[in-house]
Every structure is written in structure tokens, then in C-alpha cells.
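ok here's Fe2OG dioxygenase domain-containing protein:
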Amino acid sequence: MAPSRLSPDPPSETPPAGLTPKQVASFQRDGYLIIPSYLSRETCQTLLSKTHELLSEFPLEDHPMTRFTTGTDEAGRPTEKTHVGDDYFLTSGDQVRFFFEEDAFDAGTGALTKPKERAINKIGHNLHGLVGEFGAVSHAGEVGRRNAAIARALGYRDPRLLQSMVICKQPEIGGAVPPHQDSSFLYTRRPSAVGFWLALEDATAENGCLSFAPGSHRRAPVRDRFVRRAVDGSAGTTFESVPDEDGRWPRDFEHDEGSPGGEEEEEYVLGEVEAGSLVLIHGNILHKSEKNTSQKGRIIYTFHLIEGEEHYDDKNWLQIPGGPEAFTKLDGKS
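and the structure:
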């Protein structure tokens, strides 16, 4: 059987650039990989300072007060609850937009209960293209070259960076994120998404770190994809079923039995990391995070790659002018 496009080449005497053979094997086995001290503390502080600047300077006057939810329930099944089926969200692919925590509003009056700087859940989805500090740890400069080397080690032939976000996980109100698969939201017909998740602050069980179901990427095909109801975005968003044979990645793995969405109880392990750590997240792995009820925030920066050789269609929620060909190349040359 031909190797998957996102499977690394067979081991050679020279370790693959970016990751060692042991790291590649760990990622393939578990579906995630933690690399400590990937960014320096100074770089983390630069990105935190820029984040706080963005939070401080964005105006409330013309903001539609869009709130962020994943559109899934606690078992990871899609729901019809919409966060984001509005123009502000659907036109954010080439912009820098701000999305509120659900619990930042008074249930009775709808008024913000926190200062805006402490009420935002995420900033997205083109920080890498519009804010230099974030581009410098995504696709540009020395870190961009390291990221490109990691992509090559994972078997990407034409890695395309299609979205980037700061996720704030605010103190006291940072919402829980139920089990989900990133490939559902960044779907290619042969799933190919990988997340680069960079901790700018320590992420612990106390402030809502990630948790993973190790190996679930081999058990859990993508069953649903997050799409526009209409190509022009005029009717909001929904979930659309994915045929089982189109939802597995990579297809030449010996897949374990099991299925996502609560049909089988998955066991999750905490992914506590220190600031500066990089976490690579397979697009099909089930992962989640708990609510942050502590007094300490948990700001991270994340961006996602897809394989440019795979089919990315106009039903996907995230679209930018120029289409998929306009997604940022991660070739280490910027």
C-alpha cells in the first residue's frame, strides 16, 4: 500500500530535520507531541505584551459582541447552537477579530461583567499574516524555518498555514472546551490538519490545560465537518456528515477499533506544559480542556497547517480571498 502523504519517509541514517525519529514515532502513536522550551521566555513575553496591546486597543463601539463556542456538546457531538454563524466570524479568515467568552456577559441584561481585556476568549484568525510578532513564530524567520522542518518531518509536501489564534482562557470565566477534533473545523477530503500550539504562559490543571485521548486519532475518524450553510455565508454555519472512508487519517495506519463522540469512553491524560512549550496536535485526535476557575490566565498562540495537495473546498467555514492557493506557504523561506 502506498504511504500516506502525511506519513514520514522510512528512517534513514540521517534523522529527519525538525524532529527525531523517536519524536515522529511518538506523534504517530499518541497523536500529540510536547516539545519543551521551543520558544524562549523573552519571545513568550514579547507575544504576551502584543496580546495585551491588542486586547487593550480594540474598540467595543462597532463590535457585534460575538461569543465563541465550539458547536459541540460535552460528548463531542455537533449541536445546532451557533456562536459564530454571523458575518463577523465568517469573514475573519484574513482579519484580526475578537471573540468573547460566553460567561463574560450578564445573563439578564447581556452587559459585559468584565473589562474587555478580561472578557475575550480568542483573537483570530490571521494573526500570522497581519501581526509581525506572531508571523515571526509561525512562518517567518528562524522559528518559521524550524516549523517548516517539523512539517517536512511529518511528511507534508506543501504545508499551508490557514489560520492562527490567540486563546486567552481568562481567569474565572475561561470556558471549557469539550472533546473535539481539529480536522472537523479545518477539513480536507483526506484529513491533514496539524496544530502547532505554543504556550505563552504555564498551562496547568488549575487554569485549564489541554487533555488528550492518546491514540484516538487511530480510532476516531472525522464524522462531521463544520461548514457554511451557504457558500456565501448568508445562512450561518452547521455540521455536515463525513463518510467514514473520507474521515480517517492516515489511511494506511492499522486503525484501532473504536469511535468518537461518547460511543466509547476515552481516557484522557493531562497535557500540562510550561511557557515556551510547543504541542503538536494531530487533526484527528480527541482533545479537550476544562473551565478556568482560577485567578491565573492561560494565554496560548496556535496555528494550523493543512496539506496543500489535499482538497479544501468552499463549504469550509474558513475562507479567504484567493481561496486555498492564498493560504500561507510554510516553506522556511520567509
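+1. The chain is about 15% helix and 20% strand.
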